[in-house]
Amino acid sequence: MKKSVILGALLVGSALLFNQAISKEPGEAISEEDWALYQEGINPGEVFAEEEGGGLFEKPMGPKNLSCASCHVKDGEVEERVATAAAYYPKFDKDAGMIINLEQRIQICQSKYQEVKPFSLKSKENTALTTYLYYLAQGTKINVDTTSPVAKEYYDYGRYVFTLKRGKRNLSCQVCHEFAAGKVLRMQWLKPLGFEYNGIKGTTAADHWPAFRMTKNKVQTLQQRFQGCQKQAGQKKLPLGSKEMVALELYVKSLSNGAELKTPGLRR
Ligand code: HEC
Ligand code: HEC
Prior knowledge:
- By secondary structure, this protein is mainly alpha-helical.
- The protein has a domain at 44-136: Cytochrome c-like domain (Cytochrome Bc1 Complex, Chain D, domain 2, Orthogonal Bundle).
- The protein is built from eleven helices and eleven strands.
- It has a three-stranded mixed β-sheet. It has a two-stranded antiparallel ribbon with strand order 1-2.
- The radius of gyration is 19 Å and the shape is globular.
- Bound molecules: heme C (HEC) (2 copies).
- The site of one heme C has 21 residues, from α9, α10 and α11.
C-alpha cells in the first residue's frame, strides 16, 4: 500500500516535471531538436559528448599542432588512464601541486602540452571535453581518494562547506539534502546525496553528472549543478574551480564511491 502511494506520487511528480520541461519558456525549455532526440530514446548529452567533446579531443591546436589524441590515443584507443580518469577526480595532481578536478586537468594539458590558452571552466568547450571523458568512463566505478592526508583535508573542508549556512535564507546544502531529506520542494524530492542518510535512500548524484538538463537545454557539470542549488537557495555562487568547490566536489563525489558512472545523465 505504502509503496504504491509513493510510486503514484513519483509518477505524478515526473508527469509534472515533463510538462515543465517541454513548456516553451525562451532559453529555458528543451529545444525541438533535443526533444525529438529524447523521444527516440537518445540522450542529447551523449550526442554532445561524442560530437562536440570527441571533436575537440581530436582537434590539433597550438604551435605544435597537437590534439589530445596525439598524446592519449594508442593503437586507435584512448589510453586507459585517460579513458577512466573521470572516476578518480578530484585528486592530487603533481603539475598543479594540489587537488583539482577533471575540468582543471584538461586545462593543464591545454596550457602545458598543447601550449594554448585553456578553455575557461565556464565554457561550452571545457564542458564538452569533460563530458567526453566522463562518457568514455561510463561503467567505471567511482573511486575518489579520501584517505591520503591532503585528500582527507579536502574531504573535511568539503563537508564543512556542505554544512555552512550562507545567504539571505541562511541555508546550507545540509539543510536541504540531510535535514529536509524525504520532503518535497517545488515538486522535487529532496534526497540525501549518496547511497543513504539516516535510513533515507539517497541519490548517488556523482554517477550521472555531467548531465543534460532538460530545463536548461544543455549539459552541466557537477559543480555547475552545485551553483544551481546555490542560486536557488539565494546564495552567492561559489566560483567553479575554487578550493571550496573542488572540496565540495570531492566530498559529494566520494559519497558515490563504488557506484558505476552512467555519464552523461539526463536530468530535469
Ligand atoms: C603533448 C602531450 C599531451 C597532450 C597534447 C595532452 N596531454 Fe593530457 N597528459 C599528458 C601527460 C604527459 C600527462 C600525465 C601527467 C602526469 O601525470 O604526470 C597527461 C595527463 C592527462 C590526464 C590525467 C590522467 C590521469 O591519470 O590522471 C587527462 C585526463 C588528460 N591528460 C587529458 C588530456 C586532454 C583532454 C587533452 C587535450 C585538451 C590532453 N590531455 C592533451 C600529455 C598530453
Ligand atoms: C533549497 C534547498 C537546496 C539547497 C540549499 C541545496 N540543494 Fe541541491 N538540490 C535541491 C533540489 C530540489 C534538487 C533536485 C532534486 C534532484 O534532482 O534529485 C537538488 C539537486 C542536487 C544535486 C543533484 C542530485 C541528482 O541526483 O542529480 C546535487 C549534486 C546537489 N543538489 C548538491 C547540492 C549542494 C552541494 C548544495 C550546497 C552547495 C545544495 N545542493 C544545496 C535542493 C537544494
